[in-house]
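The freezer alarm interrupted the setup, so I double-checked each line after restarting. Inputs confirmed:
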Amino acid sequence: MEMITRGIEEKTYTLNLGPQHPSTHGVLRVLLEMDGEFITKADPDIGYGHRAHEHMAENRNYHQFLPNLGRLDYLHALAYNHGYCMAVEKLIGVAPPERAEFIRVITNELNRIASHLLWFGAYLLDLGAFTPFLYCFDDRENILDLLERVTGSRLTYCYYRFGGVPLDIDDDFIAGARAFVKRLRSRWSDYDNLVTKNVIFIHRTKDVGVVTKDQCLQYGLTGPMLRGSGIPYDIRKVEPYSAYPLFDFEIPVGQNGDIFDRYMVRLAEMEQSLRIIEQALDKLPNGPIMAEKVPKRVKPAEGEVYQAVEAARGEFGCYIVSQGDIKPYRIKLRVPCFANLSVFPELAVDTLVADLVAILGSIDLVIPEIDR
Amino acid sequence: MELLVHYLGSEVARMIVGLIGVIALVSVNALFLIWMERKVAAHMQLRPGPMEVGPHGAIQTVADALKLMGKELITPDEVDKPIFWLAPIVIFLPVLLSFLVIPFSETWIIKDMNVGLVLILSFSTLAVLAILMAGWSSNNKYAVFGAIRSVAQNVAYEIPLLITVMSIILMVGSFKLTDIVAAQSKYWYVLLQPLAFILYIICATAETNRAPFDLPEAESELVAGFHTEYTGMRFALFFLAEYTNMFIVSAIATVLFLGGWHGPFLPGVIWFLLKVYAVIFLLMWFRWTFPRVRFDQLITFAWKILIPLSFVNLLLTALALKLR
Amino acid sequence: MLQDKIKAALAPLNLEKVADGDYAKTGYHLEVAAQPEQMPQVAQTLLDTGCFLESLTAVDLGESFTMVYHFANFFELCRTVVHAALPKPKGMPSISKVYPGANWYEREVFDMFGIHFFGHPDLRRILLPDTVDYHPLLKSFAGDPWK
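Predicted 3D structure, all chains:
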């Protein structure tokens, strides 16, 4: 895109991409200083959804805090459940049995696919293509039905417990999951033809919103934002946890760090998640789903722990400080979108409003997790 | 009818009857098109669309229109009142008047002017003025944005539209719409000028502010663009004008490229309407398939690609005519 | 080994503690304790070894704060945690010149705990409204802010 030269006297005006806006995926306000259609400064204003989760953690015991995790990033709630459960399991020295680990991985990956599908549909809606949204939601309904059978909820899951999972998956679930894997695989060509090969889409996303490797290092970006720029950092591979070392999957990586690369990374990640689910279903062991000696009242020894997991948006880190009480002393929830959004002011300078919306959507934000 | 002709003269009687017919057509057309749009969109999105009100949602639009008529006409305090009130009228009237010269069949035409095509093209430019009026008077930054984008877009896409139309006029030698249709009695011009057809369809999509060129009303970026501040019946007028405009540009496409009312067996009017709605279906298909083009890409596309292509088309047409 | 590289790089700074962590229990490979004034240098050293800032937070211990910085690396697994004990009325030097990503984290700590960061380009509240006058994650914060 050529830069249209602007006059020497730059008079800017302020525009408010207000908290109520169809494209900000939650309650986000971005204060824009604009020169015509170009943006000279962008300042995100967060906190509209602050519900004091970290404060709540200090006033509840460890079990009572479990439902809060699902309300952070409600699109990939199971990863947050997973991170917190593993952190507490480390503190109390309990390890879940193998079948529970496999079930955790299967449900986690299904949730990841659901999250990416929703991002895909919503992002194309931002760009003005109304139809892929419905195709994605059609596919996503299958996942939501599957997960509802075993967790009881459609969105804000609270499924994992310390030491395992409370409800086992049955044969119907396994058959349904296999059918879903087959069905989604057949859809990739549809999405390719409708979106990936679309000239207008390519022009809107290539070389737009480029994130450099330096920016990744300085801002601590994780997730597809990072992998789109060419750095293959995925906690499931670099710092393996749960049953992930047993499965064979790849980490898709982009090259230029533009929106198109992030889009391709997320699409490829869905395929890799399908591979993991297939392998997990094939190798699913029999056995108990809950560890044997899980204390009813979780009262860990003094100490602290940091557990990182790979959520759909990046690295979710759960930092727990315990002082030997039944309530945590401090829990810090390190959410990926917080760091991913902090690079946005740098990306937004000298872009057009249309590009701004495209870049904001490509970061894949869920504002409630930033606000906690 | 004879009384009217006796007292007013056949010209005026014809115009009155014609205008009444046009107003009826515009209303029914809008009702039908809105329903068609919703059904086409729905089926492309794997869902059934309106099904409740009437058989297959056929009178859904009537229900929506009644609702819109009942809504409060909110005029925000700081708007420029005269312009704010005039804008919906200015956008609607020219479109209505363009119906005067459209040949529905050999005899069904209200006034067969010999500059018919020029009339329609000049009236369609007035829509830009109305959009600017609406956006500016709303005293709302988003609305001004939408208006500015729309002006740049419409001006940019007028030029290849006019040049493309010129290459058809070269072949016919007259601006009279009935002449243009009569000249296609053997071959439709879409076969002789496929490039012109494609260019015309692209420009028509841009002129009517339809996706993928719908930046002036880009929902996800500007909330509702230039008509953000309009409510109730005023908003309905903008809506009505958009769908009627679609009819007009499709009618011109039919007249210029698809042979107007020519066709076997069925009466001319039926063929004309079938062809017009086929082109409208094409425009709707575009909307539900493509994402939106970015603004600078839109303008670049018009100035750097469409205008040279339309010139090339014009030159080739002139060359072919000279060599014949 | 990245762990040894980091230990070697931190050696000239004369920090209170640079020790191996118990990864299975805590998730840390390296545990470092530093004085608040040394934080920018520690951050610069870690940036030079290629680590990114994972998380920045504070823990209120009643009489003092503990600033907790987590660093990790994209290419080789090595999580470093840096604890800095901060006595109550004092402020903390900002590391946002070294890690621009720390800008928002430090604003959040200021918002929640009231800790002032020297050298921060734009220290204002990030999650709570600007007009609020309390810091909710302090242990001394109790009761209903609406009163």
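Quick read of the result. Chains C and B do not touch (no CB pair under 8 Å).
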